[in-house]
Amino acid sequence: MASKFHESLSQDLSIMLNDSDDHNIIIQAGENANIKEFRAHTNVLRARSPYFKSALSAKWVTKKNNMFEFKKPNVNPIVFDMILKYLYTGEVDLTKKSGIVILGLLVASDELLLEELFKYVQDHLIEKQTAWVRQNFVLVLHTVFKLDSCKKLQDHCLNSICADPQPFITSKDFPSLDKDIFYGLLKRADLQIEEAVAWDCLIKWGIKQTPNLGSKNNDRAKWNDKDYEELKNTLSRFIPLIRFPDISSDDFFDKVRPYKPIIPPHIYEEAMEFYLKDTLPKTPPRFFKCQIESNIINPRFAYVIANWIDKKDGKAARNKSNLKYKFNLVYRASRNEINSNNFNNFCSGQARYLVLVMDQSSKIYGGYSPIGFNVSSRYNYCANWRPTTDSFIFSCEKNEGNFKKMKLSRVTNSSYAIYDYYNNYGFNFGNSFYMSGQNVYLQYQGYYDDNVISSETNINFVPKEIELFNVA
């Protein structure tokens, strides 16, 4: 087996670089007052760098008195010194180098096609220079955003910002962020930011980016129609990215309404429809991960229910549920047959559950119990009242995939929240909303408030569909 003596080879090449009496190329790095000349050997440069192999051709380089001359004005002399040492010895020491120098080394190694060095420097910035990168997100992103090979660092920056955007959006550099980077960031669904804050950031950035606004004209009271029109032009591609229904009515009035002239009419009207009518917004909120395998409701409505479980009874888009819930399908009538006995065979003993029912006209009813159902009575066939303060029932109307007139009723008499009687019922919310045989019944008992079921209500029907989900 051949022996390898790389250490002595590296040392000899380092001497060759430092005492380059036989050099045949002078490279001038830097520009203006920050210029330094380096002496090197073309054979080493060609062998170690595909870039130099092409660049040191007759078309790219000048030659005077048998000496090649080459200029790299876009590479800092400190960075180029590190590049040469790497090319000659395969060594690079970043321990005492500033973040700006290391970033420059990353860009230079990418340009010079030094793949091994590039990967090492990129990983070093991510793993060892985390704090510096965080403090200089705008600089780093502007430097690497258009370099395809820097996608790992780009993703690191963007993911870090999305996870904790507050330091970034309050930094002095934020208003100078490149428009394409800001667009991509605002478009992301995992940006952990309240929508009212996202709107504030957009206005702040847009004013800075608009000629004749910003420091020159920062008092909106003095703006004329032309000022609003210019801001509108600046933000035209960004406005559709704002989830206006996720902004509270107070914030909408105070923060959004004053900028109505810059918002396209159809977007403004859609937002007003949400605030003034009982409709479910079409756009999902940010960091929206709530999924449900349902033929009755969509994930957006599942998000509404998640908020109800968290006792956030306002319109779902105005509240941020922690979305810790998973809705696991246990029973579907169209697949498992509609009758209470079959329902119980699949569902009895579930820890907590969500029931969805659709009647023949596609009106939806539902209920949530955090304590399961038909647990104690499964074997002794006795009727039992089971108490909880957290159960609720609801209803809404479904029309062309949209959900309107959502009504929520919470339990008012916790002692009579859930009625267990395995032999007679499937689910039973206080004898107010229950399944018996093939029918679903709604009748007022006073155990739930009267938002869904009033004293005049007495309904029973064979449902079009029933689904039950374990809530995990």
UniProtKB/TrEMBL annotation:
Signal peptide annotation: none
Pfam families linked: BTB, TLD
Domain TLDc: start-end pairs: 295-472
PROSITE patterns in the record: BTB, TLDC
Residue ranges constituting the BTB domain according to the UniProt record: 23-96
Name the record gives this protein: 2588_t:CDS:1
Organism: Funneliformis geosporum
Lineage of the organism: Eukaryota, Fungi, Fungi incertae sedis, Mucoromycota, Glomeromycotina
